[in-house]
Structure formats: structure tokens, C-alpha cells
Write a structure and sequence with these properties.
Blueprint (H helix, E strand, L loop, with lengths): L1 H16 L3 H15 L6 H14 L4 H11 L9 H14 L4 H14 L5 H10 L13 H12 L4 H11 L13 H9 L15
Helix pairs in contact: 1-2, 1-3, 2-4, 3-5, 4-6, 5-6, 5-10
């Protein structure tokens, strides 16, 4: 019965992504399973995938691969699947897509949920709180904007040292800063007039 109920949604995903029906079904069910979504959330989820693929340099299949890679780690995102798709879309726009994009986002989320004494101390020293008063992870764009503001007050040497100490997401090639405007645009299916600041090369 569930398969029959979600068939129209699978058909929409297949049409949006130019996918074979079987593959579209696998992408949807596997991604939703990884995120712990129920079948009654399928339509909204597929709509977000389709809009992200239209507005960003990626496709539905690559988004599915990314979501499978980031997996349950993404469950902590404050903005849910909207923030997830926005993040993956921005990564894709910077050439980091598919499984690589999922790995990158997973590392960012893990970096913003410090578990070592050194990482916790570094965040405290910088004066940045990654969790809200209720103990939930803040939206990533807000945290990065706050972090960038704090780092501007440090010398270049201090800034680099802090980056190494508190967040691995800065270390390979990139750091992410996305705007509320872009996030809302993805949610509403509208293009933004101004591309958000996204990844800054560290090379």
C-alpha cells in the first residue's frame, strides 16, 4: 500500500531528474530511510530535491548520493531537509557534489558538534555557541557568520590557529557561509538575484 501511495511522488521525481522509474524509487526510499523520514513526508522531500537540482549545479541522482553519504548525521540540522538541500546545492555549485558533497557536509556538521576537550575549549575561547538554549544545533549559516565575525578580530596567525583548532571544515579547501536569502529561495523555488558567499578557497 505504501508503494502504491508514493508512486505519484516517485513518478514526479523520475520526471524531474530524467531518471528511470526504478532508480528514482531507490533514490527516494534510500535517502528518506537515511534521514528517518516517513512516507507522508515524501512529497515535500521530493519537491525539495527537484527544486535544488533546478537551482544548483547538480542533479537528483547526485543529491541522492550525497544524502546517503551524509546519512543520519544530517538529522541534527536545524532547518531539516530544507537546510540539507540548501547546503548540498551550495557545495555542488562549488564543484563538490555527489558522495563527495555528502562527505563534506557530514564533516562540517561533525565539526560544529565538538566532542573533544580541545575543540570545545576552542569554541568557548572564540565566543561562539553552536547550540541554542534548547540544546539544538543552530542553523549552519548563522554559526559560520558568527565565526567569521569573531575571526575578523584576530590576527592572521591567531585566525589560522583557531581554524585548525576548532573546525576541520575549514581545512581541506573550503569554508561555508550561506545566507538566509538563499535558503529561503531554495525553499520557495525562486532564484536569488545575488549568489551567496559560499566557499572560500584556502589554497
Amino acid at each position: 500500500e505504501k508503494a502504491i501511495a508514493t508512486l505519484p511522488t516517485v513518478l514526479n521525481l523520475a520526471a524531474a531528474g530524467g531518471l528511470e522509474l526504478g532508480y528514482a524509487s531507490d533514490v527516494m526510499t534510500d535517502a528518506m530511510s537515511a534521514l528517518g523520514l516517513s512516507t507522508n513526508q515524501a512529497e515535500k522531500f521530493v519537491d525539495q530535491l527537484a527544486k535544488t537540482s533546478q537551482k544548483s549545479n547538480t542533479n537528483v541522482g547526485q543529491l541522492g548520493e550525497a544524502i546517503l553519504t551524509v546519512g543520519g548525521t544530517a538529522k541534527v540540522l536545524a532547518g531539516g531537509t530544507t537546510e540539507l538541500n540548501t547546503a548540498l546545492g551550495i557545495l555542488a555549485d562549488n564543484g563538490i557534489k555527489g558522495a563527495e558533497g555528502g562527505t563534506a557536509l557530514r564533516n562540517i556538521i561533525l565539526a560544529l558538534t565538538p566532542t573533544t576537550d580541545k575543540a570545545v575549549a576552542a569554541f568557548k575561547k572564540l565566543g561562539v555557541e553552536t547550540y541554542d538554549a534548547n540544546g539544538n544545533l543552530k542553523p549552519i549559516n548563522e554559526t559560520f557568520a558568527e565565526m567569521d565575525g569573531k575571526l575578523k578580530n584576530l590576527s592572521q596567525e591567531e585566525s589560522l590557529e583557531m581554524e585548525k583548532s576548532y573546525i576541520q571544515a575549514y581545512e581541506p579547501k573550503f569554508n561555508v557561509v550561506w545566507t538566509k536569502r538563499h535558503k529561503q529561495a531554495i525553499a520557495n523555488g525562486r532564484k536569488t538575484k545575488h549568489r551567496p558567499k559560499s566557499f572560500r578557497s584556502k589554497t
